[in-house]
Fold this protein.
Amino acid sequence: MSKPRVLYITGWMRSGSTLLGNVLNELPGVLHVGELHYLWRNGVLKEGTNTQCGCGRDLTECDLWSSVLYANGTAEPAAAQRMAVQQQRFLRTRHTRARLADWTKGGRSSRAVDEATGRTAAIYGLLAQNGAERLIVDGSKYPGEAAALLGRDDLDVRILHMVRDPRPTAFSYKRAKDYIDPRTPAESSAFWTAFNVASELLGRAAPDRYLRVRHEDLCANPREVVAEVMRFAGLDGDSPVDADGTVTLSENHTVTGNPDRLSQGKTSIRSDERWRTRLTKQEITAASVPALPLLARYGYRLLPIK
């Protein structure tokens, strides 16, 4: 039996990962699962901010997730609680270097790390038998978790690092969005820098399994960028995006993620430029300063003119 193939999306939030995942979900044999990292906390323990599947049903009532959760004991509260603790202790962004060292420097991961990633790998295996025969798209965006999963020999993991200009990202975070709380521009960009630096470490450790894509390029040339991601993920066939940048989205089974994951129907992929007039100069500066080390690297202006 072949290894489950996983496209793990990393980078900071509000980068377009939910939309891209849902676009790929339109391909046969591809399943976008949203932020699988939260399956245990949100789906089983009901301690997170959202317990709804992308199909609109509660995760434990969704046909797909109820069958997966009960197939290997994942739905047991004790197992879910153990997983949530292990994620917190070993698989956060701050743990990226340590998890890479587990397999890049001749090290050995701990039993707790093996157990946690083993649970995730088991879920991937079940999904590969239930609609994800070609690819699982996991938008969890935890570089530490991605680092640990890269070291497993029972998975074919590829890393998609999505980047968006920190100023429109900060603008997006100014507004609360259903169950997602707002952040200040400075706070958003501080996280932006930390998550992107950690994601860069993945690319250095496994350059042949790493691809970086800018949100702006996805919006400017959606059909071409989606085709590039498909090639990287080992998918043949035509891009589901039309020549005019539109795609028709159907039902999905995403775990948590941007509330826009619930949207269906014809969708235009385009850039949101409202930040240029709705962010003050002070807010633009506040969002720019924490991101200075990476702006030029990603092709963004230091202080964009409004």
